[in-house]
Specification:
The chain has about 325 residues and is of the alpha/beta class. The chain has a domain of about 210 residues: NAD(P)-binding Rossmann-like Domain (Rossmann fold). It is built from 11 helices and 13 strands. α5 runs parallel beside α6. The radius of gyration is 19 Å and the shape is globular. The structure holds nicotinamide-adenine-dinucleotide and UDP-4-deoxy-4-formamido-beta-L-arabinopyranose. The site of UDP-4-deoxy-4-formamido-beta-L-arabinopyranose (WQD) has 18 residues, from α7 and β8.
Amino acid sequence: MILVSGGAGYIGSNTIIALSEMGYTDILSVDNYSNSNPDAYKRLEKITGKPILHINCDLSDRESALSVFQEHKIEGIIHFAALKSVPESVQDPALYYRNNVNALINLIDAAEKYSIKKFIFSSSCTVYGTPEKLPVEESTPFGKAESPYGLTKQLGEMILENYCLINKAFRAISLRYFNPAGAHESGLTGEVMTKRPNNLVPILAQQAAGLREKITVFGNDYNTKDGSCVRDYIHVSDIAEAHVLAYKHLEQMTENYDVFNLGSGSGNTTLEVVLSFEKENALNLNYEIGGRRSGDVEKIYASNKKAKEVLGWKPKRDLKEIVRSAWRWQQNSPD
Ligand code: NAD
Ligand code: WQD
């Protein structure tokens, strides 16, 4: 059985679909619904045609986390469960250190106790800070952590890499996502946030749905083709598929720890995303140009060469599919 932590969340739920499509049906989702809702499983069951086994558990609590492993025979862990809002982490750093780092430590503790050898960790391009060279390769050293959230991803990777040095039988992969966006093609499932989103694409979808009065594009004076920031937007279903490939790859790794970037390999400006959302969905968004957002990196996009060569991964969906699927889901979303 594979334990998917944070399986009711945005990327976890899409990964459950990908696992199921690629033949892994023995799955246990563990979530405390701090940023999701158990209704997600009903939607997943509709798509996969299979019941999703799930437990409500706060993985940052050691006893609760270990109890899951007493009750279920787990062969591997795909660990998504974390808090992910950069501004919230700046307001309450201890919440982020405690939740994100403790949940990881408790899962490693359980892996040690129950001889679990396979582990996939959700990391982020935020570990690079402001990169000097683009596209960013995995060999680029960590940058200065720009938020407590970003620090929890750096710490998470460091803890896993270090644990792999000690436990040679344990195999772990950290996947550094760039900007995950979009929703499952069915439009039946996507992100249900308990908090107001900070990410660009859900904000555009909310504005289109009339849930926000307007959008502010943060800055048009950057050194980019139209002055707005460049990011690497990558479809959530492509990210989900990469997890299944990474999970399979754990068995044939030569070293017992590795890291992969998950990005499209190219960048789009904020204004390009706004215009693409309008064009592909045949609607008008109410947006204005505002000042720069503090902490924003001017430009970042991934080299995805390593994930392509080693995992055999290929992103299949482009920006058009991202903005179309995001809008399809927004129209069905219970938000
Ligand atoms: P999400 O908030 O939709 O999903 C995370 C899930 O984890 C939620 O369902 C939440 O309720 C659960 N959770 C949080 N703390 C928990 C705890 N202590 N115990 C049990 N469950 C807990 O977020 P997501 O976008 O699906 O992100 C998944 C992972 O990917 C996170 O680790 C996040 O940091 C990382 N990541 C996300 C992005 C992004 O832009 N979405 C980018 C890079 C990395
Ligand atoms: C994208 C672009 C904004 C909102 C964050 C985390 C990162 C990773 C991915 C988890 C930026 C612009 C946004 C708006 C705007 N998450 N924007 N108006 O900041 O690249 O990355 O999510 O690990 O760690 O920091 O993503 O979606 O917030 O912003 O102009 O209302 O859209 O300036 O250039 P970001 P984002």
